[in-house]
Amino acid sequence: MSELWLDFTLAAVHHVLVFSLFAILAIELVYAKPGMDAPTVRRLAAIDAMYGLFATLVIVVGFSRAIWGLKGWDYYLTNPLFWTKVGLFLAVGALSAPPTIKFLQWKGRLKADAAYLPPAAEVKANRKWLHMEMGLLILIPIVAAALARGLAD
Q: Which CA distances in Å does 121 have to 25, 29, 35, 45?
């Protein structure tokens, strides 16, 4: 595979994965509402696991792109916009921890008690974390656009 095709493939996969994160997070926001039923609680845990998998793949493919893409690691290593993207992504990851923990707790409680449903107050509090995640996640493509145009050069 030529360098151009490798760069293109890594870029395309990276973009699809990032857009998938937006879709998965939007789905979580749709499902995580007060009054959800037991199947929705289980579904949320599964969807969140997929979110974690895709986030991991974003990191792997993104760094692969930075290392083996056309611009090369030296370009990214000293680029403040690249590190801003990485920092934002890490912040999104940190914000995703409380919802993930809550989804797993709810699933565990549901497994122990088939009648369990998450309290509305917990669901509302969890939605705030999801909204903060989305708010930071949306900044990443903005920084990526600046990075792609060499605005930090």
A: 20, 15, 11, 18
**153: in domain:** no
- Does residue 121 surpass a pLDDT of 80? yes
Helix, coil or strand: residue 96: helix
In angstroms, the CA 122 to CA 129 distance is: 11
* Contact status, residue 28 vs residue 99, Cβ threshold 8 Å: yes
Structure tokens belonging to residue 85: 């993207």
Contact in structure between 17 and 65 (CB atoms under 8 Å): no
pTM of the model: 0.93
Has residue 138 been placed in a domain? yes
Say how far residue 98 (Cα) sits from the centre of its chain: 14
> Computed from CA positions of residues 23, 49, 91, 9, in that sequence, does the dihedral angle turn out positive or negative?
negative
Structural domain range at position 32 = 3-148
User: Which amino acid makes up residue 74?
Assistant: D
When divided into structural domains, the chain yields a total of 1
- Tokens matching residue 123: 């669901």
